[in-house]
Structure formats: C-alpha cells, structure tokens
Fold this sequence. Notes:
By secondary structure, this protein is an all-beta fold. Helices cover 3% and strands 51% of the residues. It has one domain (6-17, 27-382): YVTN repeat-like/Quinoprotein amine dehydrogenase (Methylamine Dehydrogenase, Chain H, 7 Propeller), CATH 2.130.10.10. The strands form seven sheets. Strands 1, 2, 3, 4 and 29 form a five-stranded antiparallel β-sheet that branches. The chain has a four-stranded antiparallel β-sheet with strand order 5-6-7-8, with no helix packed on it.
Amino acid sequence: MKIFWFTHVLVLFAAMGASMPASAETFRVYFGTYTSGDSKSEGIYTSVFDTEAGTLTEPIAAAETVNPSFLAIHPNGQFLYCVNEVSEGEGRGTGQVTSFAVDSESGLLERLNSQSSLGGAPCHCNVDATGQWLLVANYTGGNVAVFPITDDGALNQSTSMVQHSGGSVNEKRQQAPHAHSINLSSDNRFAYAADLGLDKILIYRFDDQEGVLAPNSPYAVAVSPGGGPRHFSIHPVGRFAFTNNELTSSVTAFSRNDESGGLTPLQEISTLPADFEGTQSTAECLVHPSGRFLYVSNRGHDSIAVFLIDENSGMLEQVEFEPTGGKTPRNFYIDPTGGWLLAANQSSDSVTVFSINQNTGSLSPHGVQVEVPRPVCIRMVAQE
Length: 384
C-alpha cells in the first residue's frame, strides 16, 4: 500500500480549499549551496524558521559536501538527499548523489553514502511519494535516473536511466539535451522532465514498485523554440502545470490531463517588466499551496514575478515584480503554511524572507535576511 506523506497532505488541503492550521509552527530549513570557485561554503547549511514571527535562526553548517546544489527531503523527515553538481574535468567522470541521516534535534546531517548520478552536473532531485525512490536530473549528462532508497535511508545503484537526445535553436545553450528538473505528479504515476536543451517537457510513466521510468503516450510537449524550460510545477488540483523558460524569461502555462498525464500549452507570458533591458534568466517556478498564485525568480532583474492563476482556465495574470533584496535569486521556497516565501540570493550570499498576501499573492519584505554562502536551494521539514 502506498503511503502519501506530509507534502501530499498539504496538496489535499489546497485541493479541498481547506485552511491550514492556525497554530504557530517551526520548520527545520536546509540550504543547498555551491562550494566551488571563490565560495566560502562548506556544503549544506541549516536554520529554523518560525512561521508566527517569520524569522530564521542564524544558519550553521550541517554537512560538508561538494556543490550540494539541490536538495530533497524524505517524506518521513529522517533523511536528506543532495546532488553533487560536478562534471568532467572536476575530478569525477559524473556527478554524484549523496544521502544523509537527519538529527532531529540539532538538524546536523550524517553522511550515509553516495552513488554516481550517471551523468555530469546533476542539478535537481526529488523523492517519490512512497519514499522508496530518488529521481535525479543530470544537466550535462542530458538524462534522468532513479535510485532505490533503502530502509536506513541510503541509496542503492540506479534501477532506471533514460538518455535524452537532440537539441534546439539556441546554438550556445541547446546543442545537446540538458535535463534540468524532474517532478512527479501527486498520484506518483507520472514524472515530468524539463529539458532546456530540447525545448520540451518529457513525460514518463513511473513504476513505483520497480523504480522504472518509461516513455508516456503522449511522450512530450514542446515550448516555444529557444525558450529553454527549466523547472516545473503542477497545480494542487492537477488540472494545470507551469514551466519557467530560462532562456527567454517567460513562463508557459499548460492544461494537464490527469488520466493520460498529457500537457497542452495554454499561454506564454513574460516574467519581466516590458521596459527591462539587461541580463535575464529565470530559475525557479512554484505554485502557491492554495493554487491561486504562481511565482518565478528572475536572475539579472533580481526579482520574483508574481502571477494570479485563473482557477477555471489556468491562465496567468501579472501581479508584480518584487525585488529579492540581493543578487541572482536562484531557488526559492514557500513554507507549508503558505504565509511566507524565502528567496536564495546566490551572488550576494543571502536568504530573504517575504510575507505573502493571501488575497493578491503579492510579496512584502519582512525585514529578515540571513547570510548563507552561495545559496542555491531551500527545503523545509516540520520540527518534531
């Protein structure tokens, strides 16, 4: 019998239109970082977030590891996984994925083991709803892979790897496949891999008994040529989905068929003000737990674009572009109560807290910013 854990309870709350508990909660926060180059980072950092006060404790080092650029937390909260984003010429033929045990009191991490990611520059990972499988996207490798999770949280060798092939119109960035993320539907049946190099969202059927990915029918959906889809977020009710296009600073809205897993493009809309000129690139997109808002981070413009989602059509309407209080906002995270957004400013070594207006989706700086060296990813788990 499949066990759908805490995150899927949150999806159910949103789908039913139920309100989240009003009592104050604290969450353990983990920050993935880049350790290479001139970074002062040692690896993964941790802090505690108070949802009543909107405050973060001073981050401390939780585990030393190389370029833990993206994190995933096991549904039971006892284990954490990271990709180690390295490639050819950096000492390893491929990147790695590493497992850790979580100390529930201190938040510190104990390394369990590592496996080859089966491709260069792994950049995204997710644990499935059963807690038995880790799915990984390899950017330079241009593939996606599945790794079994043992009862003690360690990773076994891969049970499935799918190699992408082809390219698209941008000669500098799209000469080869670049799998940039892999996300699962809430029912665990479909995996969606956004491939920047192919201008496609590839759709896989996921066998959560054997840990195998198989091409779906339909097998993919294309975005506009040269868009470069990067991350992917499914609406809580499952009828809509969204991808941010890194290369054109836009977001594409899709309708989604819950039975077939198929996607149909509805709209493409810019994530930037019409008069903006300069370096531009999107990084993350997330649907609010209520399903009413979509957020996308803009690097260069250094902002979060906020959109209203039409609950009937899935179409987007611009609300605002909120500065993140730092440079190069990468990943951001919406806390499980839906009241707060935490933005990771990669180039200014900071994480900024924003309150979310529950009626409009707009963001307001909360006056809280903590120092984290080269932050790339933010994840949370409920405190015991």
